[in-house]
Design a protein that fits this description.
This protein is of the alpha/beta class. The chain folds into two domains: 7-187, Spore Coat Polysaccharide Biosynthesis Protein SpsA, Chain A (Alpha-Beta Complex); 191-235, no CATH class. The protein is 44% helix and 18% strand. Helix 3 links the parallel strand 2 and strand 3. Helix 10 runs antiparallel to helix 11. The longest helix is centred in the middle third of the chain and has 17 residues, at 121-137. The protein is globular. This is Transferase 2, rSAM/selenodomain-associated.
Length: 235
């Protein structure tokens, strides 16, 4: 079965040797239907690139930073649709069918609902609030596997080269073109970040960063806050 569109899945990675194989193997059905997977590595020294190479259609090296990496992947992508997937996130089995419905719509871009992989009831609550917030505001985060028509991405000049909040900033510009196409079948993102640093601590950190961003603080200073908090989080 083939779709009426071509899809490029762009996966930015850095030091993901432990999970990159599982991530890319999960995309094998997408490749089997004629679509491409592009991995953009930011100079990993743990074997990420070597493990990724046989499991993708193209492996690029770029400077570090998700925005820079995703733009680099988009620059060589051939697809009508561009989908940006975090290295710890899995698409649902029905992703291509859902994207077909999007392609046939008039929307310019969209995102998936998200579910955290952990079994704690709190993770379900967190995901519910993430999805509801996104549905109300039109803003999505990278965990929700943002997708966009190629011509729209190029017209907006892609992601701004920010150290943090590049997904939020791009969503805001995309909302000027259309509301997002929201796919309820969720992507599943690894809950290791929440488990390692503590669910409530992570919630507080992310909401604090977003609040300060909306208040006008620069993404560069927020990135410093984020890195400092993660470094001092309890193991």
């Amino acid at each position: 079965m083939s779709e009426a569109f071509s899809l490029s899945v762009i996966v930015p990675v850095w030091m993901e040797a432990a999970s990159v194989v599982d991530t890319l193997e999960a995309l094998a059905p997408v490749r089997a239907r004629g679509h491409e997977v592009i991995v953009v590595d930011a100079g990993s020294c743990d074997g990420t690139a070597e493990r990724a190479r046989p499991l993708c259609d193209r492996l690029l090296q770029s400077d570090k930073g998700r925005a820079v990496q995703m733009n680099a992947g988009a620059a060589v992508a051939r697809g009508d649709l561009l989908l940006f997937l975090h290295a710890d996130t899995r698409l649902p089995p029905s992703a291509l069918e859902q994207l077909t419905a999007f392609f046939e719509s008039r929307r310019a871009w969209g995102r998936f609902d998200v579910r955290l992989s952990g079994t704690r009831p709190l993770f379900r609550v967190i995901a519910w609030f993430m999805n509801q917030r996104s549905r109300l505001t039109g803003i999505c985060t990278g965990d929700q596997a943002l997708f966009v028509r190629r011509d729209v991405f190029e017209a907006l000049a892609g992601f701004a080269a920010l150290q943090l909040m590049e997904d939020v900033e791009f969503s805001r510009r995309l909302c000027l073109v259309s509301r997002p196409f929201c796919i309820r079948e969720p992507v599943v993102t690894d809950s290791r970040r929440w488990q390692k640093h503590g669910a409530w601590r992570t919630i507080f950190l992310m909401w604090r960063l977003r609040w300060r961003y909306w208040r006008g603080e620069s993404p560069e200073s927020l990135a410093q806050v984020y890195r400092s908090d993660v470094r001092h989080a309890p193991e």
